[in-house]
Amino acid sequence: MLKHLFQVLTAGVILAAFAENANASTITVTNIGYGYDNVPMLLNGQTTPTEEYAVEILVNLGGAPYIAYCVDLFTEIGFATYNTTVGDVSTYSHGGRLAWVYSTYAPGVTTNDEAAAIQLALWDIVHDDGDGLSAGNIQVAPTYSTTVITRANDIIAASLGQSSTNASFLHNASLSTGAPAQTLITAYAAQVPEPSTTALIGLGGTLTMFGWFRRKKQK
After folding, report:
1. What is the number of alpha carbons within 13 Å of residue 136 lying toward its C-beta?
2. CA–CA separation, 168 vs 114, rounded Å?
3. What 3 state SS string does the chain have?
4. Ranges 6-15, 33-42, 131-140, 186-195: which has the least confidence
5. Has residue 175 got a pLDDT over 90?
6. Which of 41, 82, 154, 161 is most enclosed, with most CB atoms within 10 A?
7. Cα–Cα distance for residue pair 218/24, rounded to 1 Å
8. How far apart are the first and last CA of the chain?
9. φ and ψ at residue 196, rounded to 5 degrees
10. What pLDDT does residue 23 have?
11. How far apart are CA 22 and CA 35, in angstroms?
12. Which tops the pLDDT comparison, 209 or 30?
């Protein structure tokens, strides 16, 4: 789910792609918050679980702190600064439904279980159209926490037919190479705030770790 190295397609190319729905800026991925770094997932039919980071991603955008989640499990991003284009829900598949999940559940997160469940639900909606975590290309190993799986499946079910515009998508790319990086969803930030002295929020349960976010290891 996350890796170091990547930069943007030029601002002109990105703005052409997203037209009036986006603003160019930069983000810095600074840390991770609530969630788990060892969720065993069965991806694309594999039978050996791969541990994934189902966590909040803490970013700084326009000098202000935001809490984000990733929306594409198979693209990487890491602790670095990226060119970003802030797009509304029309700039991502299932954008309105994903925004509803984010705006409904993310503001109230106070536990690792809650954050992990939101992340798993977002992945399932993106990659499997929300068929639940025991079917399709995105599954969680059945031996994993019943509490997290049940909570995630409840979010998926509740999101069916729902839509919101109260979130934005951060379309990211490497500063050094222009290669695409993980797209994130975060609080509505279509009008990027001016830089400020706002300190990055400190979250209880923050997992202090360095390295790549997406795949860790296989069991």
Report:
1. 14
2. 20
3. CCCCCCECCCHHHHHHHHHHHEEEEEEEEEEEEEEEEEEEEEECCCCCCEEEEEEEEEEEECCEEEEEEECCCCCCCCCCEEEEEEECHHHCCCHHHHHHHHHHHHHHCCCHHHHHHHHHHHHHHHHHCCCCCCCCCEEECCCCCHHHHHHHHHHHHHHCCCCCCCCEEEEEEECCCCCECCCEEECCCCCCCCCCCCCCCCCCCCECCCCCCCCCCEC
4. 6-15
5. yes
6. 82
7. 37
8. 17
9. -140, 180
10. 76
11. 29
12. 30
- Beta-carbon contacts of 159 under 8 Å, excluding residues fewer than 6 positions away, are 97, 100, 101, 104, 121, 125, 130
Flag the least confident range among 70-79, 103-112, 164-173, 197-206: 197-206
Q: What is the dihedral of CA 136, 137, 140, 141, to 10 degrees?
A: 90
**C-alpha distances out from residue 15 to 19, 20, 161, 188, 213, Å:** 5, 8, 30, 18, 28
